[in-house]
Amino acid sequence: METIFNSMFPTFFSIFCVIYIIGYFVIFRNWSQKFRPEASSCLISLFHGSPAVILAISALRLQPVWGFASPNTNSENAVLEFSIAYFTMDLIHYLIFTPREYLFIAHHLATLFVFITCRSVALHGAFSVMVLLVFAEITSFCQNVWTLAGLRKDDSDLAKRVYWVLSPPFYALYTVMRVVAGPLFFVKMSTSLLKHEARDVMPIWISLSWIVVVGAAIMVSWLWIWNNWMEYFRERGVSKEKKEG
């Protein structure tokens, strides 16, 4: 087993720690204590999401053979370490400040399980993880700006406008990535991971666990975006009634 601690993980983790601390004590120091932790979490997510997409796409372009169970390349391992560092830091954030956010904690633990087993146990399958990472993080910038605006929308007209203007395009992009593209790729990935070619190089328990974890994440994403769409149209209806009244 290869360990991520003999890698770039400590460096990446230190960077995300510093960014979080700067966000908490400097950038968001004038925000209320209620919002400072979540805002700092959004800040490190901003430094992870879009860079992760770029790094993952670059790693895929350098991959000599595209296959769901192909050997990991050094570039793919670096992206995995980068993401493991981010999710570890954000998990610590949740455990300290919002330990009852069981769904987010479970999501981070499941994501870390896939990343770590891919990087340090299976040593194969990073192609699948890179594609899923792109689908998941391509909405990151919009989501974090939307979240930050949502934290301040009750006491800032600008934040409120940004929140409502950004909601439809963010929800639409999220729907395309998580409800359409992601599940289609998941079906192909699941089928491939259960074939003999994958079972010859990856333990079957890893393939099955990835399928369960990713499938559960997709279902949670469907529920999350459905609830947000319903809330958006409900709020629009209320706003329309107030104007007509």
UniProtKB/TrEMBL annotation:
Alphabetized InterPro entries for the sequence: At5g14285-like, TLC-dom
Keyword Nucleus: no
Coiled-coil intervals: none
Residue ranges constituting the TLC domain according to the UniProt record: 34-237
Location of the protein in the cell: Membrane
Membrane topology: Multi-pass membrane protein
One CC-aspect GO term: membrane
Kinase keyword on record: no
Signal peptide: none
PROSITE patterns: TLC
Keywords in alphabetical order: Membrane, Transmembrane, Transmembrane helix
Protein name, per record: TLC domain-containing protein
Pfam families in alphabetical order: TRAM_LAG1_CLN8
Membrane spanning residue stretches: 12-31, 43-66, 78-97, 104-123, 129-151, 163-184, 204-226
